[in-house]
């Protein structure tokens, strides 16, 4: 790449510099590169254009806030739940109730009685997505619940049949199931008072050939006392 410059002399008169200067693709002239090389340093490249930090942060927040599955996607998935012949365009009351139970929409404020009453207003066993939106709108107004809250729960409840358990509840369930003090029957005999497993002695009736009766608490103390 070549450049053509206009130079002013000491008397204020200008003239064109017809000499051609070679300019590198990165915007640094060959002369500057030669001077830098003579001085033992390298020319600084042109600064790269960077996106504003605030803009990048906003994009990241939008990506995190955006739902991975839409409400219409969930409608299609639950309308096929339990019905292999369904094309995902119509949903039944039973499928709707399963969806709402999984999404925790059916609770103290909204019951299956409420959903049944409002669903049967359409006088059909199956309704489309358009009618289902009307059904939810009518249900929300009657039960005084925000429609946006209902749809948000329905969109984020996960795939059909997948129960979402919080980490706290899962940990409590594991603690309860592994508490040996609450075991009964033969399972209780597999652990000692501290919760440590007895091994094979806890699973089989091992014959004690010591001569002592079962449950005797002063075993091997006779010689020490006499």
TrEMBL record:
Return the Pfam families for the record.
p25-alpha
> Which residue stretches belong to region Disordered?
1-24
* A cellular component term, taken from the record's GO annotations: microtubule
Q: Which Gene3D superfamilies match?
A: EF-hand (1.10.238.10)
Q: Name one GO molecular function term.
A: tubulin binding
GO biological process terms, alphabetically, are: microtubule bundle formation; microtubule polymerization; positive regulation of protein polymerization
The record, for InterPro entries, names: EF-hand-dom_pair, TPP/p25
The family line of this record is: Belongs to the TPPP family.
Name this protein carries in UniProt? Tubulin polymerization-promoting protein homolog
**Lineage per the UniProt record:** Eukaryota, Metazoa, Ecdysozoa, Arthropoda, Hexapoda
């Amino acid at each position: 790449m070549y450049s053509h410059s206009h130079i002013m002399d000491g008397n204020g008169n200008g003239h064109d510099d017809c000499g051609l200067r070679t300019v590198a693709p990165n915007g640094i002239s060959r002369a500057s590169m030669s001077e830098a090389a003579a001085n033992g340093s390298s020319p600084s490249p042109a600064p790269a254009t960077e996106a504003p930090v605030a803009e990048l942060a906003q994009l990241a927040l939008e990506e995190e806030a955006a739902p991975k599955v839409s409400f219409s996607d969930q409608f299609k998935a639950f309308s096929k739940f339990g019905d292999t012949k369904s094309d995902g365009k119509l949903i039944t009351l039973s499928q709707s109730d399963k969806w709402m139970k999984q999404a925790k929409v059916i609770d103290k404020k909204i019951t299956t009685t409420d959903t049944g009453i409002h669903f049967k207003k359409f006088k059909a066993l199956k309704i489309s997505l358009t009618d289902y939106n009307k059904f939810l709108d009518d249900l929300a107004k009657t039960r005084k619940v925000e429609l946006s809250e209902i749809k948000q729960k329905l969109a984020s409840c996960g795939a059909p049949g997948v129960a979402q358990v919080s980490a706290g509840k899962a940990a409590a369930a594991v603690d309860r199931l592994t508490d040996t003090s609450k075991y009964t029957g033969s399972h209780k005999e597999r652990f000692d008072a501290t919760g440590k497993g007895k091994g094979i002695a806890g699973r089989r009736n091992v014959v004690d050939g010591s001569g002592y009766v079962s449950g005797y608490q002063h075993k091997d103390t006779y010689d020490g006392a006499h």
